[in-house]
Amino acid sequence: MGLHEDTVAVVTGGSQGLGLAIAEELRREGCTRLLIAGRDRTKGEAAARALGAVFARADMGDPAQAAGLIDEAARRWGRVTALVNAAAVTDRASILDCSPAEWDRQMAINARGPFFALQRLAQRAVEAGHPAACVNILSMAAHCGQSFLAPYSASKAALANVTKNAANALARHRIRVNGINCGWMDTPGEDAIQRRWHGADDDWLARAEAAAPMGMLVKPVHVAGLVSYLLSDRSGVMTGALIDFDQTVTGASPE
């Protein structure tokens, strides 16, 4: 029996990159009631067909659309027991050049939308009286972040606090909330970012991995396995955890 044969899941950002890897892992573990969400309908519908899942187009910057994903899944399958908030934007901006509009956009998509998706999951689960679990995809940038990731780092730090606060508030309802601080990850989205913002060429990944302590960047499939575990009964009472998933250790100094 798979870990997720009884799971009814919503994965935001589920049509590409880490979100897609998570959706694929849940499907491998038996989840047949799976809704993936994203902004690109063509890409999302193709991913959903390959997975045997349902796609819903949503802008996570709109709280109503974020919460509506839970309602749509519940309308189809009666309830929702698992949520993964993987959708995010990582456009560059620093303390010196970030505009109010860019700040608001990143905070809306990366923190506000996930908050209201989680809120709706919790409201429905509490009303129906069943357990549920949420995993928020965070970032090592939540600890500080590079200078060019000022609004992104702030939004992930905000979501880290949402994770802990919600875990505390919802524990007696048997709703678990955990987060994963992902390090530099090898995804198609990161490739596009490196080329757009940093003038990267075709061998940027090979050079980055050659310089990494473990000879690779974080791989989505590895994070997906942890997400599956955290959403499953195997993780027991684990809640409120913020897990650093990286090969650098926060607070370590050069020797």
From TrEMBL:
<comment type="similarity">
    <text>Belongs to the short-chain dehydrogenases/reductases (SDR) family.</text>
</comment>
<feature type="domain" description="Ketoreductase">
    <location>
        <begin position="7"/>
        <end position="187"/>
    </location>
</feature>
<dbReference type="InterPro" id="IPR002347">
    <property type="entry name" value="SDR_fam"/>
</dbReference>
<dbReference type="InterPro" id="IPR057326">
    <property type="entry name" value="KR_dom"/>
</dbReference>
<dbReference type="GO" id="GO:0016616">
    <property type="term" value="F:oxidoreductase activity, acting on the CH-OH group of donors, NAD or NADP as acceptor"/>
</dbReference>
<dbReference type="Pfam" id="PF13561">
    <property type="entry name" value="adh_short_C2"/>
</dbReference>
<protein>
    <submittedName>
        <fullName>Product</fullName>
    </submittedName>
</protein>
<dbReference type="InterPro" id="IPR020904">
    <property type="entry name" value="Sc_DH/Rdtase_CS"/>
</dbReference>
<dbReference type="GO" id="GO:0006633">
    <property type="term" value="P:fatty acid biosynthetic process"/>
</dbReference>
<dbReference type="InterPro" id="IPR036291">
    <property type="entry name" value="NAD(P)-bd_dom_sf"/>
</dbReference>
<dbReference type="GO" id="GO:0048038">
    <property type="term" value="F:quinone binding"/>
</dbReference>
<keyword id="KW-0560">Oxidoreductase</keyword>
